[in-house]
C-alpha cells in the first residue's frame, strides 16, 4: 500500500464521516495532522536542496 493510498484511506475513514456528522473536533484534528505532514515534507525537501545543489550551501 503506497503513501497516497494510505492518506486517501485515512480521509475515507476519518474525514468524510466527520464532515457529514459535523464532528468539529475530529475535523480540526485531521486538518492539523495533514498540515503537520505537509510542513514536515516541505522541510525535508528544503533541507535536501543543500545536498542536491551545492550552490545552495551557505558561504562563509
Report on the architecture of this protein.
78% of the residues lie in helices and 0% in strands. By secondary structure, it is mostly helical. It starts with a helix and ends in an 8-residue tail after the last helix. The chain is built from 2 helices and no strands. The protein has one domain (3-56).
Helix content: over 70%
Radius of gyration: 17 Å
Shape: elongated
Give the strand content: under 5%
Largest sheet: none
**Average pLDDT over all residues:** 82
Terminal residue distance: 45 Å
What low-confidence regions span 5 or more consecutive residues with pLDDT below 50?
A: none
The structural domain count equals 1
Task: List the keywords.
2 helices; elongated; mainly alpha; 60 residues
Compose a concise summary of this entry.
By secondary structure, the protein is mainly α.
Write the SSE topology:
Layout: H1 3-20, H2 24-52
Helix pairs in contact: 1-2
Amino acid at each position: 500500500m503506497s503513501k497516497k493510498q494510505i492518506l486517501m484511506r485515512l480521509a475515507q475513514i476519518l474525514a468524510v464521516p466527520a464532515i457529514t456528522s459535523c464532528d468539529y473536533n475530529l475535523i480540526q484534528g485531521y486538518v492539523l495532522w495533514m498540515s503537520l505532514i505537509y510542513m514536515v515534507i516541505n522541510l525535508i525537501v528544503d533541507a535536501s536542496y543543500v545536498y542536491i545543489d551545492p550552490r545552495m550551501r551557505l558561504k562563509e
